[in-house]
Specification:
about 230 residues; 6-stranded mixed sheet; Rossmann fold; about 25% strand; alpha/beta; single chain
Length: about 230
């Protein structure tokens, strides 16, 4: 029996028109299974980050079709997409984008407070659970500006997990980390996909990181040139 499909992209084409017409993605299509850990690789300019922003529903200016968790997202309004994103997708960037004047706990709780589906007490309990999963419960009340880079990135992952997203997307999530912290983040993603059934899609330049994920899709000049 075929595994459940978490995400399906069909004939994704993307054009930029400034400073001149340029096709960034050419008929890109693939499926990602639920609980799969997928890496998108390719040289700078290959289109992988452009693709990730389309998959994350943050870029709607494309041709083709995007389906996540059985729901067609192409053509939905910005408000509909924002609501879908808040419930279904967690995002981890290369730069953690934490608010330095807030505590670790407050940073993690923010997306859930915004979603407003649980009480503050429930959200705080979830935030503590995420910190335990990421090995940082003792840092909960510290200002994020007082943490190391590796700790800050783990807090960013805890924040991405707070609304229990079915898909976590990462744009170079280990790009600013040393090898030790890169391995920690990789192990966290592996655990989330294999133990908790969350789907992971990351753009990475790190060959070892990609090689050890479940599957790799390689882009070159806007086209898929390999999947293994």
């Amino acid at each position: 029996m075929k595994k459940d499909i978490a995400l399906k992209a069909s004939k994704i084409n993307k054009f930029f028109h400034e400073p001149e017409d340029f096709q960034a993605l050419k008929d890109v299509g693939f499926e990602v299974h639920k609980g799969e850990f997928l890496s998108l690789i390719g040289k700078s300019g290959s289109g992988k980050s452009t693709l990730l922003y389309i998959l994350s529903t943050m870029d709607t200016d494309y041709k083709g079709e995007l389906i996540i968790n059985g729901e067609k997202l192409t053509g939905q309004t910005l408000n509909q997409l924002a609501a879908f994103r808040n419930s279904h997708i967690g995002f981890v960037f290369q730069f953690h984008y934490l608010l330095p004047e807030f505590s670790v706990l407050d940073n993690i709780m923010l997306p859930a407070l915004k979603l407003n589906k649980k009480s503050r007490e429930e959200i705080e309990a979830d935030a503590y659970n995420n910190l335990k999963l990421l090995g940082l419960p003792e840092q909960a009340l510290k200002l994020t500006s007082k943490l190391s880079g590796g700790q800050q990135q783990r807090v960013a992952i805890a924040r991405a997990l707070i609304n229990s997203p079915s898909i976590i997307m990462g744009d170079e999530p280990t790009g600013n980390l040393d090898s030790k912290n890169t391995n920690i983040v990789f192990d966290i993603f592996k655990e989330l996909s294999h133990e908790r059934g969350q789907t992971i899609i990351t753009v990475t330049h790190d060959e070892d990181f990609a090689k050890n994920s479940d599957r790799v899709i390689e882009l070159s000049d806007g086209s898929v040139v390999g999947a293994h």
